[in-house]
Design goal:
This protein has 95 residues and is mainly alpha-helical. It has a domain at 5-68. The protein has helices at residues 5-28, 37-94.
């Protein structure tokens, strides 16, 4: 089962966001007080990067959704105008 680009992007974004959330919860509960100096910084930097990555993926998904919506609206308008033109031509032929 192959996923299209939108589904893939949403799955990756969800996984990244879930990972960042899991790191946040673990960092505030289980690992509280156990991380020292460099490990503490690296851990929270990874969490921060994952959160930023999830935000970037969400923004890219939003941009793609807007692009697709504009394209569908354009196609709908063109199709409607073409149908109106065809109806007008067929009415003129009858007269």
């Amino acid at each position: 089962m192959a996923l299209d680009a939108t589904a893939r992007r949403r799955w990756v974004g969800g996984i990244v966001l879930f990972t960042a959330l899991a790191m946040l919860v673990c960092g505030q509960t289980v690992l509280q007080g156990q991380l020292q100096r460099v490990a503490f910084l690296i851990y929270w930097m990874i969490c921060f990067v994952l959160t930023g990555l999830a935000a970037i993926i969400a923004l890219r998904d939003l941009a793609q959704l807007q692009r697709r919506t504009r394209q569908e609206q354009k196609e709908l308008l063109e199709t409607t105008l073409k149908e109106i033109e065809e109806e007008t031509q067929s009415k003129n032929r009858r007269i």
